[in-house]
Amino acid sequence: MPTDAPLYRDPTRPFDERARDLVARLTTAEKIAMLHQRGPAVERLGLRAFTTGAEVLHGVSWLGTATVYPQPVGLGATWDSELLERIGDAVGVELRAKHAADPSVSLNVWAPVVNPLRHPAWGRNEEGFSEDPHVTAELATAYARGLRGRHPVYWRTVPALKHAFGYNNETDRAVTSSQLRPRVLREYELPAFLGPLRAATAGAVMAAYNLVDGRPNHLQGELLDLLRDAADGSLLIVSDAAAPGFVVTLQRYYDDHVEAHAAMLRAGIDSFTDNDADSAPTIERVTAALERGLLDEAVIDRAVARQLELRLRTAELDPELDPFVVGPDAIDLPAHRALAREAVARSVVVLENDGVLPLRPGVRVAVVGPHADRALHDWYSGTPPYLVGLGTALTERLGADAVRVVDGADRLVLRSVRTGGAVRASGSTHVLTADGDASDASAQHDLTHWGDGLWSLQVAGSGLLWSGARWVVHADATRLGGWVAQEAFRRQVHADGTWSLQHAGSGKWLRVQHDEAGTLVADGETPEQADRFTADVLVSGAQAVRDACTDADVVVVAVGNDPHLGGRETADRPSLELPASMLALWRAARDGGAAGPRRVLLVVSSYPYVLPPDLDADAVVWTSHGGQELGHGLTDVLTGDEEPRGRLTQAWPRASADVGDLFDYDVIAGRHTTWYAAHAPRYALGHGLTYGDVRYVAARLGDPSAADPQHDDQVTVHVTLRNDGPRDAHELVQVYADAPAHRLPFGHRLAAHLRVVVPAGAQVEVDVPVRLDRLATWDVTRDLLVVEPGPYELRVGASATDLPHALTLEVAGAPVPPRTVVGRAVRAADGDAFTDVELSAWHRTEGTAVQVARRRTSGTVELWTCDVRGARGLRGVLARTGPGVAQVRLAVRVGTGWRTLATLDAAAGGGRWDWSERSAPLQDPPAGDVHDLRLELVGAVRVGAVELTS
Fold first, then answer.
1. What Cα–Cα distance (Å) separates residue 69 from each residue in 113, 338, 494, 560?
2. Could you tell me if 796 and 805 are in contact, meaning their C-beta atoms sit under 8 angstroms apart?
3. Among 544, 559, 623, residue whose Cα is nearest residue 591
4. Considering the entire predicted model, what is its pTM?
5. For residue range 448-487, what is the model confidence (pLDDT) as tens digits?
């Protein structure tokens, strides 16, 4: 390098120094322009145009042909960090190939999603790895490490973790406030983010649309700082798409965009993904904020430096040193195809099996149902080079004479009541017209019900789907897809048996135009404007299933969702139950054949289902939508060519009512997830069967059997397993921790897991390390994670509910002292128990307060084990949500009740940001040293903090 080269060109200098040198050379206007997602080139400095974000959730998305791997919820079911790193590596190679072909393709990749799968109704369930935050962290770290690469200096890509924080609902996602009290935040929410950051496998984070504790995530500077504190080096925080504008337009947290943008930058947002490719609004708002004195230029410099450091990591300015250069043809490599197949096979979970699996040689198989031979995309899928469904793959493996494939759709003719003609796909444009003949294959349509009243219609002659995307209805779609699926319809069946059809994507009803052909258009505003059709069934799907089963030894009924319907980004699941139409096919399969074949229920889905209690299956198998090699990977497991290894990373509930409220993020009080569940699931976290017969013979704690967190990082559990079966078994040994004597609700936590192969007929002993920090709870009195002393039960087995061995671990150490409340302000948000209150923003950009929950008149916050010695008065920091009564009462626990000690009234007038101190003496102060206290909030009061005075 020339000796007169600028510092930022010197690859021997640290990235942060080089980034700061670059910032110093940029003009103010250039820096502001770089704050938008699509930043311009600065040619005089060698900086090309830059865009944040390329989607690589389970393969490269939206950039043309690329290898498609199983959905993350399926990858999670592998519990295999080594596999996920290999997949991340392969995806990173293909993203680099896209970048080689088009340098505008960003090397800042928006993956993985680390939101724990708290609730199975979340529309984006497919995007996460597990309900358990630590399993999520482990798998996300591995996938991100593959994307990043293992070079000590340069990164193949820079992964961005999504979405911070508390994001698990699509319904009203931009305006709902997730309640993350300190324990939930620190014990359940944050670990999934902190794992990849501490491992230095992620260099960016995306803020979520929603609010947390009453403050938009894009203004959560205190929470974002927790992530930055954990990161090894710079951390770029990017906004979610259109979210910066929502702070004003939807959340109405600020009145104007200039003030909001200044606040977001101060909070730590570094890049604005807003107004699509139009950077002008962002530039105008930040420029105005600077001119109005709402923003120091140093804040802009900080954000730009973080972006530049990210770009330097990918060797943008050191191309001759870039270790990750590939050509544009490094796509769909043979090794990637093989890896995709391996990933599917390792993700398949055998949930039940009475011996019908693996399929025995010479077996005759009927594969029926909507997923009999489909392999489907989701929103974040790439464009696969090919797709292989189960029916095709089983036929390849067993032979055409041994496999019969039926999708179970009704084949019918729809006739316009008004024209009398059959609806057909006409001409090379595939326009639907009501002038056809029922005998023509173009006028015969296969009707598939996907649940929740959504149907797809497929022309029998072409295999193409109806689509209402262009007003005139065509039958030219190869699959359901798009941000809003245009290939789904609803039907209304009238009293006379005729149908009206509604295009689900637009909400418009189908009419038959008064032209010669009777062209179908989607433009009716009401059902009364819709045309009616008679429906003549030519082939009953249920009967076709029965017929397929006649000579079959085994029938595989393949059901599940289409990822674009009934739950996806922007739409939570309307129902958790398996659709009635699919259960009808299951019953039809039971009725087929003289003696009836053995029946395997195969669920291909993005999420758990609630299955009926009387399912009566010989086997139940689950897989996520597995991408291009779905059929081959499934076949490998069903036939026994591969041993089943998959285990659930998310429990399947027994009943819909068991999972609780989608909007209740307090997993402790709400008793959600395996950690705190009040109801036993149908299939537990960690559940999955092998083709062996593994017995947990014994378990014991290593020496010593007690631990002191001051000196010990982990303990070891020795587990003896025996496989009495004829096949090697891939077992997942799991250790769960319970603490019935803990002073806080502790839950049922996964503390450790280990994969082990147990050979047929063999007995093995494995050592499972259990990290003590998995036993930690957040001490709200001192703001730190603590492994409290006392007995912990370590339970060992094959799932969260199959735990035949229990061991007692004694943990030494000093107990958590009583909470100091005299002479020390206690944040109301640091309570131990909350009833009918909600957390809210104390100040616009910092702190958390408590107020009465919406649609409630009062609520309580409990503060346990408080040292009240010398207390004579109460002081509180109060504000109002509105006019009327606004009061907080302090009470002490007496037996099973409470006695009021003091009452404070919020100052009259003022708004939610107008805080004032209020004081009152205690009436009859409690005797003794330590007591439980309770704050009762009444009416419009907001409480920031309270303090007992002497």
1. 15, 11, 44, 18
2. yes
3. 544
4. 0.97
5. 999 999 999 999 999 999 999 999 999 999 999 999 999 9
